[in-house]
Amino acid sequence: MNSIFWMPRAVRQLRKIAEQAKREAIYDAVQNLATWPMCNGDIKRLQGRQDYRLRIGDYRVIFEIDQRGNPIIVTISQVSKRNERTY
C-alpha cells in the first residue's frame, strides 16, 4: 500500500468545501490513489509539469507521485473548484 501525504494548503482547501458529500467524494477518490498505478478515476498528467490532476465533478485535485522508494508517496498539493486559474 502506498502513502498519501496532504500538504497543509490542500487540507485547508478541502475543509472549505461547504458540501459534506463533495468533501467525502474527494477524500475517497484521493484514498483510492494509494493503489497507484492501478487506481481508477479521471487522471491526467499536466503538460509541462510533473503533477497530475484528478477530476471529481467540478473539483480538481493536483498531486505528485514519488516512485523512487517503496512505498510510493502520493503528495496532494491542491484541491479546488475548476475555473480558469485552477492549474
TrEMBL record:
The identity of this protein, by name, is: Type II toxin-antitoxin system RelE/ParE family toxin
Q: Which UniProt keywords apply?
A: Toxin-antitoxin system
The record ties this protein, via PANTHER family, to: PTHR38813, TOXIN RELE1-RELATED
Classification via InterPro entries? RelE/ParE_toxin (IPR007712), RelE/ParE_toxin_dom_sf (IPR035093), TA_system_RelE_toxin (IPR052747)
Lineage, broadest ranks:
Bacteria, Pseudomonadati, Pseudomonadota, Betaproteobacteria, Burkholderiales
